[in-house]
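Q: Convert this sequence to structure tokens.
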Amino acid sequence: MSSGSTAPLQLAAVNRAILALALVPVLAAGCGGKQSYGSKLSKMCEDFAKREQQIGTPSSPADLAVRGDKIVAAYDAAILQPLLQTQPPPEDAAAAQRLRQIAQKQRDTLRALADAGKKGDTQTLRRLAVRNAQLNGQAGDIARQLGAKSCT
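A:
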């Protein structure tokens, strides 16, 4: 880690990585028509948001080390597992499959962020924050396409 004017930049990047965890796009699944499916996606997003609020937003790499595993577990329970277990309406099958793939990548990225927080690896945190932001954007687009109103 270099000193001088780069230290504030490194800290800012770490803070952005930590914030990225709090901005996880929340994905979920349901059955029935598009409206029902979108509604169930939204309910799952709301469930994850409540869980995440109870865990708290990490504010440092050390805090991320403590809370990261809990965030990953909440994401897996509230988003990924229900998404993998629920069949979408036939007309949304392709988009839902893409959403599942992104959700798996998102969980893996969250796991890697938690691990990087435990190691205090700011370079990896920065790289993963960028990856997380990309996944957030992709998932948000698909969730909106599927009718979710709370998953942005």
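The CA atoms of residues 13 and 126 lie 6 Å apart.
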